[in-house]
Specification:
Number of helices: 11
Number of strands: 8
Strand content: 5-15%
Number of domains: 2
Low-confidence stretches: 1-8, 10-40
Helix content: 25-40%
Structural class: alpha+beta
Largest sheet: 3 strands, mixed
Order of helices and strands: HEEEHEHHHEEEEHHHHHH
Mean pLDDT: 79
Distance between the termini: 81 Å
Length: 253
């Protein structure tokens, strides 16, 4: 028996049937993400858990496309990797219920990093994860565009594990470092070193080649102030630049 030819109408019908069958599933599949490796649902199902364990999430494509209003969220049951989670039974019973209901997926994560760790541990967490201000970049896109990210509705924004970030407590310093990373000297350096055809053209090793203190010495201070002020939509002064310079290299000033 020959198959029917695939045309637009047949494709739309098949797609509609698949979407209907997917929406009928009781429990959607789960996936891991980092900054990281916490749980989220693919199908956008509403989950009733304690709000203090839910954080806005930006993925690398959102950073790449400059779509910086988070449309996704991530559940983070720990503050540090390896932190005990059993107390969530009492301190966050709705979260604990959600995790245990999906334990068949979470307990079978294959990475060896979870061995001998508390149940439902997440990978790649630290104080930096909860910093209110971050400068981030996608590792999977060749452009190397850095983005300045502040809190979303009062919560720090998390990135997935295909992004790199620098954390900041201070918005002005974050804006100035963002301006430095967007400067022409950094752009030229990255363009000369990255491999456009690589699966991950922006890597940790590549980013570690950036010398922010040296870049600051090469940049026009007026342009730096203007760029940082525009990013923050607030006034940044040369005194702020001097404070940053001292933090980057105390021997200069």
């Amino acid at each position: 028996m020959s198959n029917s030819p695939l045309d637009t109408a047949a494709f739309k019908t098949a797609a509609a049937e698949y979407a209907k069958s997917l929406s009928a599933q009781d429990v959607p599949s789960l996936y891991g993400v980092t900054d990281g490796k916490a749980v989220g649902t693919k199908a956008g199902v509403s989950v009733d858990i304690e709000a203090e364990y839910v954080f806005p999430l930006l993925k690398c494509t959102a950073l790449h496309r400059d779509r910086l209003q988070p449309a996704k969220a991530v559940v983070v049951p720990q503050r540090q990797f390896g932190e005990e989670t059993s107390q969530l039974r009492v301190t966050a019973p709705r979260l604990w219920s959600y995790l245990t209901e999906n334990a068949d997926v979470l307990d079978n994560r294959r990475s060896s990093i979870y061995r001998s760790k508390p149940r439902f541990s997440v990978f790649g967490l630290g104080d930096y994860s909860f910093a209110p201000w971050k400068v981030g970049v996608s590792g999977l896109h060749n452009d190397g565009n850095f983005r300045l990210i502040g809190p979303s509705e009062g919560s720090p924004v998390f990135f997935d594990d295909t992004c790199y970030l620098l954390p900041f407590e201070d918005a002005t310093q974050a804006a100035l470092v963002h301006a430095l990373l967007c400067s022409e000297p950094v752009r030229q350096l990255l363009d000369s070193l990255k491999y456009p055809g690589a699966k991950r053209p922006i890597t940790k090793k590549l980013l570690q080649r950036i010398d922010l203190a040296a870049t600051l010495q090469e940049c026009d201070l007026d342009e730096l102030v203007e760029s940082a002020s525009n990013s923050l939509k607030n006034s940044v002064t040369e005194q702020d630049i001097e404070t940053l310079a001292q933090a980057l290299d105390p021997t200069v000033y």
